[in-house]
Amino acid sequence: MITEELLKNRSGFEEKIRKLVGRPVLLIELDMFALPCGCAGITANTRGLEVDDLDVFEPQLLPYLKEMASNLGVKPSVVFARLVPGSSIVASLNWRVLCSRCYPEFARGEGKTPRPDLYLLQFEKRK
Predict the structure, then answer these.
(1) What is the DSSP letter of 84?
(2) 30: buried, middle or exposed (CB in 10 Å: 19+, 13-18, 0-12)?
(3) Which of 45, 7, 55, 3 is nearest to 25 (CA)?
(4) Per-residue pLDDT reduced to its tens digit, 49-65
(5) β-strand pairing of 118-123 with 78-83
(6) What are phi and psi of 93, to 5 degrees?
(7) Considering Cα of 65, then 70, then 72, then 76, what sign does the dihedral take?
(8) Distance between CA 85 and CA 21 in Å, rounded?
(9) What is the spatial distance between Cα 84 and Cα 99, in angstroms, rounded to a whole number?
(10) From CA 127, how far away is CA 86, in angstroms rounded?
(11) Element spanning 79, H or E
C-alpha cells in the first residue's frame, strides 16, 4: 500500500465522521498491521469520538467502515472500537482479520460490549 493511498483514505474517512457527528473528530493515525498470532488489519486512532456516537450513528457509520476496509484491501472478520478503560472515549476503530487462535475470544462474547474495552460494530461468525 502506498503512502498516498493511506493519507487519502485517512483524510476522507476523518471528514465523513466529522460531518456525521457534527463536531471535530480527529483520526490522528491510520495503521495497517500484522500480528505475530496471525491477525491482520487496520487501526485508526481517534480523538473526539464517544461511545454515544457509535450508538446513535452506527447505521450510517458502518458503510464508511466497510468502504475504508475495501479501499485498503482488507476483508475484516470483526470491526470494533477500542475504548479507553473506564470511560466512554473511543481510542481507536479497528478492522481485523482474525486468526484461528483469536477468533474464539471474539466469538464467545455477547452483545455490543463483550469486554469493557471493546464495542463491536460488526462480527462475522464462522460456520
Answers:
(1) P
(2) buried
(3) 45
(4) 999 999 999 999 999 99
(5) antiparallel
(6) -105, 140
(7) positive
(8) 22
(9) 24
(10) 34
(11) strand 78-83
**Which residue shows C-alpha cell 481510542?**
91
CA distance 121 to 31: 19
Residue 14 corresponds to which cell in the numbers above?
A: 476523518
- 43's grid cell: 487501526
Alpha-carbon distance of 37 to 70, in angstroms, equals 23
C-alpha cell at 103: 477468533
Cβ pair 34, 51 in contact under 8 A: no
- Name the pTM for this structure: 0.92
pLDDT single digits (tens) 66-77: 999 999 999 999
What percent helix, strand, coil does the chain show, rounded to 5? 35, 30, 35
Residue length of the chain: 127
